[in-house]
Specification:
Elements lengths: L3 H14 L5 E2 L15 E6 L4 E5 L5 E2 L4 H13 L3 H4 L13 H5 L10 H14 L3 H12 L9 H10 L1 H12 L7 H12 L2 E2 L1 H7 L19 H14 L5 H7 L4 E3 L4 E6 L3 E6 L2 E2 L6 H14 L5
Antiparallel strand pairs: 1-9, 2-3, 2-8, 4-5, 6-7, 7-8
Helix pairs in contact: 1-13, 2-5, 5-8, 5-9, 7-9, 8-9, 11-12
The chain binds 6-diazenyl-5-OXO-L-norleucine (DON).
């Protein structure tokens, strides 16, 4: 795999020494129960080459990284109609903001802020017989990874403290853009965020966004080339909330973060790379994760630009 191995090792050792000015998320109390020194990286290329370093095999709470998976399934199920419910513009606002919804009449700016992902969950509830089970089996079947699961503890912890999400869901419902019962929608949303995966599992599951010819072991395509292009485009412009411009500027790859400290980034036609380090910068993105990826695309001189 080119010279990625040596470059990743060097950057990993370098970033490991850096003083981490981030803070572990604790607004979902269960997320604070993590060893903040965890630091893992995994890369998977479209040719199936893989390389891991550090805590790349430990499962963690993927949180908002799951928003790519819920969007993928909703897009598969209802096609372009999804964009009538959620827009594709960067919000330039924090992930849990209520600010723009009033002026935008309940249509979230994009599917990667909480408001947008909640609407996507509402679409899935309307489309799926058993939303939690069906979504989980969709995720498991992408890479035939039957070990994927939700964390009841994390989901319940967020349910008890997710006041902003509860407000968002009710507010959107008041505009008619939530069709199902708000408690059902929120319960499903909290469960999707509680999915647990390792860096290795994340790099493997998102290969369908890097590889135009990706098929699972049942020879099924996950998305068409044009659908994958669109999801990558939204990741580039909206994957890091009010830090999306900064991520594109510093890293130059489509990506998505979660408050568990995971970041996935895609190089179309080349690879998916995942970094996990739980301490977050003030915008809710992994401090060392961003630093690692910035050094990675700078040293390899390999971004999409
Ligand atoms: O809804 C929330 O606040 C969390 N379940 C997910 C937020 C998140 O991961 C934002 N990402 N950086």
């Amino acid at each position: 795999m080119k010279n990625y191995k040596k470059i990743i090792e060097d950057i990993y050792n370098d970033v490991k020494q850096v003083d981490d000015i981030g803070k572990v998320a604790n607004y979902i109390p269960e997320l604070a129960n993590v060893n903040e020194n965890n630091f893992g990286v995994h890369i998977t290329t479209i040719n199936g080459e893989e390389f891991s370093i550090g805590d790349a095999d430990k499962k963690f709470s993927i949180q908002s990284v799951s928003k790519i998976l819920t969007l993928t399934l909703a897009y598969k199920l209802i096609g372009e109609k999804i964009w009538n419910r959620v827009d594709v513009e960067p919000s330039g606002n924090p992930f849990n903001s209520l600010l723009q919804l009033e002026a935008d009449l309940g249509k979230p700016r994009n599917p990667f802020i909480n408001a947008g992902a909640i609407v996507v969950c509402d679409v899935l509830i309307s489309e799926l017989k058993n939303p939690k089970e069906d979504f989980l089996s969709f995720c498991r079947n992408i890479t035939n990874n039957q070990s994927l699961n939700y964390s009841d503890k994390v989901a319940q912890s967020e349910k008890n403290t997710g006041f902003r999400n509860i407000a968002l869901c009710n507010f959107i419902k008041s505009f008619g853009n939530i069709k199902n019962d708000v408690n059902r929608v929120l319960d499903f949303y909290f469960y999707t965020c509680s999915l647990e995966m390792s860096c290795k599992e994340l790099s493997e599951i998102f290969l369908y966004l890097a590889d135009d010819n990706y098929k699972n072991d049942k020879e099924e395509t996950i998305l068409s080339t044009s659908e994958a292009k669109r999801i990558n485009a939204i990741m580039l412009t909206c994957g890091f909330y009010d830090e999306s411009g900064e991520f594109a500027f510093r890293v130059g790859l489509p990506g998505k973060s979660g408050v568990g400290g995971g970041i996935i980034a895609i190089h179309p036609d080349e690879f998916c790379i995942t970094v996990w380090s739980p301490k977050l910068n003030p915008k809710g993105n992994s401090y060392k994760g961003m630093l690692f990826l910035e050094k990675f695309t700078s040293n390899t001189e390999n971004s999409i630009f």
